[in-house]
Design brief:
Bound molecules: zinc ion
Radius of gyration: 25 Å
Structural class: alpha/beta
Low-confidence stretches: 14-22
Number of helices: 18
Distance between the termini: 59 Å
Largest sheet: 9 strands, mixed
Helix content: 25-40%
Strand content: 15-25%
Oligomer: single chain
Length: about 550
Amino acid sequence: MRLYFAILGVVLSAFIIASVPRAQVAQYDLLIKNGRIVDGTGSPWFRGAVAIRGDVIATLAAKIDEPAARTIDADGQVVAPGFIDIHTHARRGISDVPTAPNYIRQGVTTLMEGPDGSSPLPLSTYLVQLERLAKSPNIGMFIGQGSVRSAIVGSGNRRATPEEIQKMVSLVEQGMKDGAFGMSTGLFYVPGTFTPTDEVVELARAASRFGGMHESHQRDDAAKVLDSVRETIAIGEQAHLPTQISHAKVVGQANWGRSADMLRLVDEARARGVDVTLDQYPYTASSTAVASALLPAWLLEGGREVTLGRLSDPASRERAKADSIAMIRDERGGGDPKNVQFASCGFDPSLAGRTLADLTRQRGLEPTIENAAETTLWIVEQGGCQGIFHAMSDDDLERILRHPATMIGSDGEVPRFGRDNPHPRSYGTFARVLGVYVREKKILGLEEAIRKMSGFPAARLGLTDRGLLRPGMKADIAIFDPERVRDMATYEKPHQYAEGFSHVVVNGQIVFEKGEMTSARPGRVLYGPGRLEPAAQK
Ligand SMILES: [Zn+2]
């Protein structure tokens, strides 16, 4: 008994000695106090504090009094989970600008890449490069069906043989083992557009076996948009995996209003158990290559040399021009060459920001739709441009945004500041939703908008440790003033950072504060649910 008390005494005094100094040193590495906590679930905000230890949220409470090495007074601003951008083209630029300030400065802490059917192959090599890159945001990848088809079948318009399908399935499986979050398709683009639905389903089954999802740049966002929605749903239904309509939109004035039917199809599919969702950027202009947007797929089939060959043949040139006229009139051309703006043209950088009407006039032609189609063929011969296409309606945009199954995705990239004339979505998407569609137009409540930027995409991706403010979650956090948050980037002057954010934290480290990026590079590569460590792969 005496021995027992002696031991107890030693243990107790050791505890007291250890705990006295500990009470005076910091309990936490970072404390964010006096915030309006919006936790990412869609629940109403509450006044509270978040305490972080290492890269993890340690405590979330109305009040936290324990000391921290560093304290941020949020001063009544919103404290939200860092935003997760489920659809980006960040590999355009991330290795040149690994801080991605265009994203960080609007609260985005995680970027998903490999969209629209396009990813590096093999994914493992690119993931190693990303691991080595000292970067501010986290980044994860999809495996692209178009890239896989290109590697095995080429860019021609033909069915794949059973052997080729087997090879493509293996590549998708390998991508999932390497750490993809799922498979993306770009059935709008060459060569994705030559893929029959049943072939996509075969490949989607491979992603499904590893717990991945499917996301699609649909085959057609214009006259056949409803068929495309049916196809995206069918892929999810037949391959038994979550399926997502990327950058959901309705292009071309003749098709405006069809978002109502589009969302009805989504609701019906969800009611019968198909897990279909959407993502969207809050702009009525899209952006892609001028050739993809304004020229038919048959012209682009087989690659650049073959395309140039077709353009030198008068009969097929006439046919291409006729198709292009229809696409400018009824689809991405928005019915007027003024509605097509150049983001960048490799052969003539001075064209960035100008319109197809400007260039047609510069070539000595009246800017009619017919002459603009001729100019479009000429652009392809010169080497091509990236374009911005004003051809959507606000009504469709708002209807899609309101839908509970829609999340936010920028479809943007990491621009070099001041270079070219990129779509403003790269700088403004998340701030624009919060400033225009929450505060000004009141299309969404604040908590619902934040859910669409954090908890919802995290759940979609199977990111179980991000997207919510909860003890145990990774400390990715955005702090902003809901009265001041706004996008500044415009179509005319896109290189302008969003405003209203005071602090952004990635993996527990402050990457942005007081209007400046810090020197921290805490971003990590995130891996999907099917990942096998390289050593575990045969
Ligand atoms: Zn796309």
